[in-house]
Amino acid sequence: MNILVIGAGSIGSTLLRECEHIDRIRRCYVLDHHPEKLERLEDRYPKVVPVEDLDKTLKDTDLVVEAASQEAVKEFGPMALEAGADLMIMSVGALVDEDLRSELYSYDGDIYLPTGALCGIDAVYNASMAMRHRRRLQRIHGRCRRGDPRDHQTSNILGTHRYRQKKGIVPRSC
After folding, report:
1. What average pLDDT does range 135-141 have in this prediction?
2. The whole model's pTM is what?
3. How wide is the angle at C-alpha 7 spanned by C-alphas 112 and 115, nearest 5°?
4. What angle is formed at CA 127 by the lines to CA 125 and CA 131, rounded to 5 degrees?
5. What pLDDT, on a 0 to 100 scale, did the predictor assign at position 10?
6. Structural domain boundaries in the chain
């Protein structure tokens, strides 16, 4: 079995590392727009082969794993299924687009949509990175809200709560 991983970020790199331990997988093709990542992965894992000719690679691929972005699903999903490969989509939010979803479902290949922790790896990582650069979120109690409660919730999430306190928009007791 040969797979093609689109995206060499946290999910893609993890998949490529794990593929080294699966005997059924002969080659792990990888497609990414950062050549330095591709070189590093190729040096580290013997099964990894950077994609040079996408059409030729797709003909030799049994499973395409999108681990890049919703745009990658739109660009490469139909190509993968048209070439006869199955498709695993990590960026499942791309399927909100009805036209794309209909197009993908019109092919005979299988489409895999993992759920749970696997799809949340990037979200957890991004959240942890964001928390390093943000103030702690504050809770505004219901008794302190005036006017439209969504306004206060939004201002709190955006980190403007202190500014709004200084301007007298939100009582200091909140």
Report:
1. 40
2. 0.66
3. 30
4. 120
5. 87
6. 2-129, 135-174
Tokens of 104: 């993908």
The tens digit of pLDDT for each residue in 34-43 reads 988 899 999 9
Amino acid at 12: G
Residue type at position 9: G
pLDDT in tens, 59-102: 999 999 999 999 999 999 999 999 999 999 988 889 889 999 99
Q: Does domain 2-129 correspond to CATH entry 3.40.47.10?
A: no
Task: Tell me, letter by letter, the H, E, C secondary structure of the chain.
Answer: CEEEEECCCHHHHHHHHHHCCCCCCCEEEEECCCHHHHHHHHHHCCCEEECCCHHHHHHCCCEEEECCCHHHHHHHHHHHHHCCCEEEECCHHHHHCHHHHHHHHCCCCCEECCCCHHHHHHHHHHHHHHHHCCCCCCCCCHHHCCCCHHHHHHHHHCCCHHHHHHCCCCCCCC
- Residue 11 pLDDT more than 60? yes
The tokens for 164 are 């709004």
Nearest CA among 121, 38, 79, 111 for reference residue 29: 38
Q: State how far the Cα of 79 lies from the Cα of 40, in Å rounded to an integer.
A: 27
